[in-house]
Amino acid sequence: MSEDVWIIGASMTPIRRHRDRDALDLSAEACLGALDDAGMSIRDMGVMAVGTQFEPYTFGQQVQKQIGQTGIPLYNVHNACATGATAVRSVLMEIKAGEADLGLALGVEQMTAGSPPYRSMKPAEGNEFTAEGRDGHVMPTEGILGTGQMFGVFAQTGMDYARQHDGVGFEQFAKVAEKNHAHSTLNPLAQYQRPYSLEEIMSAEMLAYPNTLPMSCPTGDGAAAVVLVSEERLRTLDPEVRRRAVKISASVMTSDPYDPSGLAHPDVNTLTRLAADQAYERAGIGPEDLDLVELHDCFATAELVHYDNLRLCEPGGAGEWIDRRGPWRDGELPVNVSGGLISKGHPIGATGVANIYEVTTHLRGEAGDRQIEGARVGMTHVIGLGSACAVHILERAAGG
Amino acid sequence: MSEPTATIPVVDYLVLDDGPAHLVGNRCEDCGATFLDRHNACPNCGGRRIERARLPETGRIESYTVLVRGAPKHIGPFVSVLVRLDDGTYVKANLIDVDPVADAVDTDRPVRIVTYPVGTDDSGTEAIAFGFAYDTEGSAQP
Ligand SMILES: [Zn+2]
Fold it and tell me: Are A390 and A285 within one domain?
């Protein structure tokens, strides 16, 4: 078994509607911040991976032109909402393979100034019907044959869980958003930083039942980056760098295995369960050893089902767990103390690095007002619909 | 308004001209996995012998949502359902003939495929969509 890979630098920009900063500027801020945090230069990096969903190809090479072109291998990666975590794992794998001993991983999205390629919605009337695509559709089928949009899919996933478990309904899902909006009031990097009452959340405009607007992630821009190092190289570094180093005890990715329902409606549960179980096994820990979790709450319904998928609550007990405030920052196991995607924000490509930044910051004891005291072990989780899942388990340096 | 001269299904797995409207899928001859869309090999077992299969017209709702703000503006609020047909094949569609509110959805009641016109093109061809409605035909509701 190869040696572990460690994080020695981490940085992220605030998540905002950055109207005056493009993806390159956001990327450069995160990368330079992570390098400074590690006490390293771009010339020390042996590999780089860059994740973005919407920027054009070889975007990473354009980032290099902002921060330093040194001729190293660069992977541009693209994996929906798991894009950032995929970039981190790409660098980790290169280090594990012995091809490099230091590397930089970046995730970024600029969704305000750029324009995500949302499909246009033609009205039903007019022209001549012509069958197109693999299903021979003669018009856009969104709204005619159900919904395939992300907010609709995650709403249905939540209602499937509610159908199968008593005591889970609109109010339990809304409590997830109440918690995450409360948490983000302590996070200066979050896009929203104000509390919402449960009543305010439940009476807000309905996006797709049961998720109202404050139960859904906003559109936002930002970037996050980490510097990774091999264990062998870490031993040669400055004691202060070693003291703040965070071990990646598990880095697991899964894709969705076959399920009869999965072709009609993406299954975000099975691949999350597979990834979590593999991550616990590789790290040699269980859910009871975790001090905090940052999981993929693109919608409140998603967070609730992932309590169960990641084994954070009793099987089937996600509704009861939020009812008794288990995942609150002062509860049994704090979940999304950053505010999560619902409140911290969700710049697609940045998300899977931003959650690693968040957990790393807590494990170093540097999270300020939102610090989870004494945090030693944390988990991050992302899902890219379609589907890709990544789970990382991070641990504080022994004696740190 | 003139009578439509012809009809066309909104997607090619909806069959309108062979008895009652129904869906047709593709079934793996090796493992029996059935799907609406076209696959070069079976996503379950990798088998390459895939045959067309007529799908049942009835099933049950497994999950739903009501899109309100999220609905396309020209369509307005609608109920999206994932239906497990009686042979185990899954289909995404709208639940129709109900108000678009969560209380209108009853996952215990069987549903049946129904069709309706969804638009007419410049040559007068009418597009026919399918959805699901609560099955009252032949069911012994108390
Ligand atoms: Zn098969």
Answer: yes
CATH number at residue A347: 3.40.47.10
A161 within some domain: yes
**B11 C-alpha to ligand 1 centroid (Å):** 24
Q: How far is B88 from chain A (nearest CA, A)?
A: 8
Range of the domain at B51: 6-134
Closest chain B CA to residue A261? B90
Is there a domain that residue A135 lies in?
A: no
Which residue in chain B has the smallest CA separation from A132? B11
Where are any strands of DSSP class E within chain A? 5-12, 47-51, 74-77, 102-109, 206-208, 211-212, 222-230, 246-255, 292-294, 377-384, 388-396
Handedness of CA A26, A27, A33, A36 (dihedral sign): negative
Has residue A125 been placed in a domain?
A: no
Would the pTM count as exceeding 0.90? yes
Q: Quick one: A88 and A32 in the same domain?
A: yes
- Are residues A275 and A263 located together in one domain of the fold? yes
For residue B54, give the H/E element and its range.
strand B50-54
- Residue B64 placed within a domain: yes
Distance, CA of A3 to chain centre: 25
User: Is residue A31 annotated as a catalytic residue, yes or no?
Assistant: no
- b/e map of A132-171 (b: 16 or more CB within 10 Å)? eeebbbbbbbbbbbbbbbbbbbbbbbbbbbbbebeebebb
B83 CA distance to ligand 1 middle (Å): 21
A256 and A323 part of one domain: yes
Domain extent, residue A356, equals 141-217+251-395
pLDDT, tens digit (0-9, with 9 covering 90-100), for B50-71: 999 999 999 999 999 999 999 9
Which residue in A18, A31, A78, A81 is the catalytic one? A81
User: DSSP letters of A110-141?
Assistant: --SSS---PPP---SSSS----BTTTTBSS--
Instruction: Report how many domains make up chain A.
Output: 2
Residue A122: inside a domain = no
Over the stretch A41-99, which tens digit does the pLDDT of each residue have? 999 999 999 999 999 889 999 999 999 999 999 999 999 999 999 999 999 999 999 99
Write out pLDDT tens, residues A314-365.
Answer: 999 999 999 999 999 999 999 999 999 999 999 999 999 999 999 999 999 9
Cβ count within 10 A of residue A16: 17
Q: What angle, 0 to 180 degrees and rounded to 10, lies between the N-to-C axes of helices A351-363 and A83-96?
A: 70
In a domain, B141, yes or no: no
Is residue B105, in this structure, part of any structural domain at all?
yes
Q: Does the CB of A265 have a partner CB in chain B at under 8 Å?
A: yes
CA distance B131 to B62: 15
